[in-house]
Write a structure and sequence with these properties.
The protein is globular, with a radius of gyration of 24 Å. The longest helix has 26 residues. It folds into two domains: about 110 residues, no CATH class; about 150 residues, no CATH class. By secondary structure, it is α+β, with helices and mostly antiparallel strands. Strands 1-2-3-4 form a four-stranded antiparallel sheet.
Length: about 260
């Protein structure tokens, strides 16, 4: 018998805090989690492991970032209905810490004048924030997503069910047909899941990155030239953000977000 052992990462939800979200451009509730390196044998965790960091996930846009857990004075086990309650208890200094950033946001919202440098900052900020996530996605191995997982579950479920029926009807023509069908569908399903896995990176751009940046930039409403200008440094550095983002698709996402925001309700 072969025994597998080593370490694996384990995420544990700690609760909820308030923090500033670069993508939502405002104070938002976050889910805070602890990430540990845990020893395991055959996939079974051995103890609680060593803490290697903390993650926070915005409850509004669902984006995940590294977190400094020491910066929060309290962590709620259950998310309060009132954001003010969350802020006062978990991060009461937030209005002072982000005073300049929130003041800039207010001026933008009220259509007050902003400087060229401030506009450049607003355009660069979300790109700096999301660059690492895109780099990890495109430089590393393909990561499974919901379509990939669903395809895997459906394939295993259908093939397993047909295989079971084939065993039940073993020795008959129906049983033979069911076993053959299970084999064919297994091959087709495996190929489909493989294709879904290979295309997961592009789906991440289409379903997550473009809509997210579209909403983030909707108030700023940048031109194609401005987007090209601020993506160029990432291209010059050879980063995935600069090479994978299609500025015209991003501009379309911004226009779509502006249309949605202009609709009543």
């Amino acid at each position: 018998m072969i025994i597998f052992w080593g370490t694996k990462s384990k995420k544990k939800k700690l609760g909820y805090v308030a923090d500033y979200c670069v993508y939502c451009r405002g104070v938002q509730p976050y889910e805070l989690s602890k990430v540990s390196a845990v020893g395991h044998i055959q996939g079974l965790s051995l103890g609680s492991g060593k803490t290697v960091g903390f993650l926070k996930r915005c409850e509004s846009c669902s984006m995940v970032n590294a977190a400094d857990a020491t910066g929060y004075s309290h962590v709620f086990k259950k998310l309060p209905d009132d954001l003010h309650v969350l802020v006062v208890s978990s991060f009461p200094e937030i209005w002072d810490v982000y005073a300049e950033r929130l003041e800039l946001e207010d001026r933008l919202y009220n259509d007050d004048p902003i400087s060229k440098e401030e506009r450049a900052f607003l355009l660069r900020e979300p790109l700096d924030a999301i660059a690492e996530e895109i780099e990890i996605r495109f430089k590393g191995e393909a990561q499974g997503d919901k379509p990939t997982g669903l395809g895997c579950v459906i394939t295993l479920g259908v093939v397993g069910f047909l295989f079971f029926l084939g065993i039940v009807n073993e020795g008959s023509s129906i049983g033979s047909f069911l076993m053959q069908a299970a084999g064919v569908l297994g091959v087709v399903g495996f190929f489909s899941v493989f294709v879904l896995l290979l295309t997961s990176k592009q789906r991440f751009l289409k379903n997550t990155v473009y809509p997210l940046l579209g909403r983030t930039y909707s108030q700023i409403n940048p031109s194609l030239e401005e987007l090209e200008q601020h993506l160029q440094p990432f291209r010059n550095a050879g980063l995935a953000l600069g090479k994978k983002i299609d500025t015209r698709k991003l501009l379309d996402a911004i226009h779509q977000a502006r249309v949605e925001l202009s609709q009543p309700g």
